[in-house]
Amino acid sequence: MMQHHLPRIFISGLLYLAVAFGAIWLINPQSLVNFVGPSAALFSGLLLLWGITPLIAVLLVSPILAFGLDYYFKLDANLAVMIIAVLAIILQGYWTKQLVFHFIHYKRWLTSRKQLFFFLLRIGPIPSLISASSVLVITILDNQVITGTFFYTFMNTWSTSMLAAVFFIPLLLLVNNAEQFKLTKRLFVSFTSILGGLAILLLLKTSQNEQQDYREALFKQSKVEVERLVLAEVNDVANKVNSLAALFKASDNISLTEFNLFSEGILEQSSSVRALEWAPIVTFDERVTFEQKSSSTLQKNFYISERSESGKPTPALSRTEYAPLYYIYPQYNNQAALGLDVYSNPTHILSMQAVTKSITAVASAPITLVQDELAKPGMLFSKAVFSPPEDNGIMDEYGKQKLSIIKKGKLLGFVVAVAQFDNFFKRLAEQNEQEVSFFIQDVSTNKPLTLFGHDFPKVNRHVDTMTIEVFSRLWQISIAEKEPWFRQDKSWQAWAVLVGGTFGAVLFQMLVLMMAAYSSELGEQVDIKTRALILAKESSEEKSLAKSNFLNNLNKELRVPLLAMKSFIEQLKKKGINNIQVTGISHAGSNVALLLDTMMDLSDIESGKITAKEDCFDFHGFLQRTESLLKASNAYEGKSVFFLIDESVPHYLNSDELYMQKLLNALIESAHHLLKVDALRLSIKLHKHKLADTSLFFTLSPLNPASLDTNEHGVIERTSGDLAADSTSLAMAIKYSQLLGGDTTLGALSSGVGVLNSSIRVIISSKEQQEIQQGLIFDLMS
Fold first, then answer.
1. What's this model's pTM, rounded to 2 decimal places?
2. 626 in a domain, yes or no?
């Protein structure tokens, strides 16, 4: 017994791994739930075939499967997920076995179309509900998602499990051949099922690839759009900084009113720029004068300050020059920053030396602004403003300008834009067409700083990361689909392929198997009919044998008194007694003997003991002898038969001369009684069907129809005795004609005159047969 279990465990384990990895690889997108449905269908089939052996294989191989899923497909097949999956596979297998045990045990799943329908229903749609329901729990554990719709995942798993069961289990049963089907039927059904399964698999795979390509294209489009909009917003902030820098560069003295008007013109309501600031260069010597003048201009106690370690503004320490924030638009909610020396900014946030050296705006690291009550992260975009440059040219020896050196003018100050992108990022994330989530960080240093969002789950989602340069800073944008694949809205094409492909495949397999089931039904019906025919034949043979035995016994019993009667009549004739009574008794005995011979012939014909010969003979000579015998017979005294032979009738035919003679005698006797005439016309014609295969027709009709004794309807008056005689002779004629391959019928002409027709099959003799027959006749005559 163990010798059978070990190979089966090994084969079951290999099939289990192959189906699980194949399902994960084939079904897009790759997910941990993909293997449950097909594996459950495989286990159901193996359980029906090999009993408990596949269960042992599944339990032993499942840890290997979990390791392979994690190693090759990077899927987290943890203990909880694998336990639920294995339990669902085992439960579906045993439920399937209970549902179809009756069909398998009694070998009735392919005996009829009705049985096949219920068998497929019990191996596919019904038990597949277990694996389809279990994947919902696995999906929640795998993705940590509780809300949302799981209907597509349910339908997809139910479909894959049902298709695998409907195609695999019948194929497995046919290969095992427990039902003892013919090899041709098994090969046809198996080959057709495999081709149909491959076609359906190719269709579903193509549809899945198209869906995933479309999904990936949408994700890439969203990614490009997010990058474009982020860069556009950053550039908009930089453009505002450049515009303000151009204003201070174009004029030596810009008043607060001019600054406010210009800032109001370029600062849009939906812009990410919260405030525009101007910080002029003030030397140490000019500090007191500048503070007094600024206090008068701003109508506020103004002094140059810097931020202490506690974050509070304090008077700035002595240094060569300062760059205090002098103009701020709007001042409301931003007055706390007035007078703050930008040189006091920490270098890791924004180095003013780097701003001075750069010809473009420089962005700072994310900071929490002092004037920001909501403590949202903000950024400073700063640009140094110089006086118009001087162009000094160096001349070569030929007096041509060889090199042009552009020197920066005097540093006038710094233009600063306070930007907060949080509202912009929120608007971007809430756009309906952007079905993605993104997480933005500043990664210019080893310690990333968060600009927007938070880290998100990446399971069953398209995820990508891009890094963009934002004015000397590096921003990393991690982008992913908002919802995993199973929760995304599917197009009607995806649903049509899933539902239509599933039911189409099941219908195809059902039609293929129903052809085999229909052939089984026909075979069973043929067997039933054959058995019935055999029984009927046996019964008929028994009845025929009983009838033949009865006729033989009756013939023997009647022959004894007939022989005694014949012997007594011969003795009377020897004594000279030969009156009318003796002659009548002799004639009656001869008729009874002839009747007994006819009865025996009819019985032998019915039982098949007599078969017609196909000997060559002179048909015209046969007719002449028959006509002569009829004229010489006492029974035909006062009666006549005129033979009318068609010229198409050949002289030599192949048939049975003896039974043709009996047929003519029975026909003529029947015609005399049926037609109630003494003078008959016998028309003989030949009709060719094929080469050397013809029918010979005998037609008996009154020679003189005007002399018939008919009533007003043209029907011949008959007596009961005539009808009895007619039925006996006519039955003899019918049997003899059937023996010779033809038939006998009674008809009437349009004038009402009765006609008796009979046909037999004959063969026209070949020249060689005619020559042989003529030679035999010549030898007999000589």
1. 0.62
2. yes
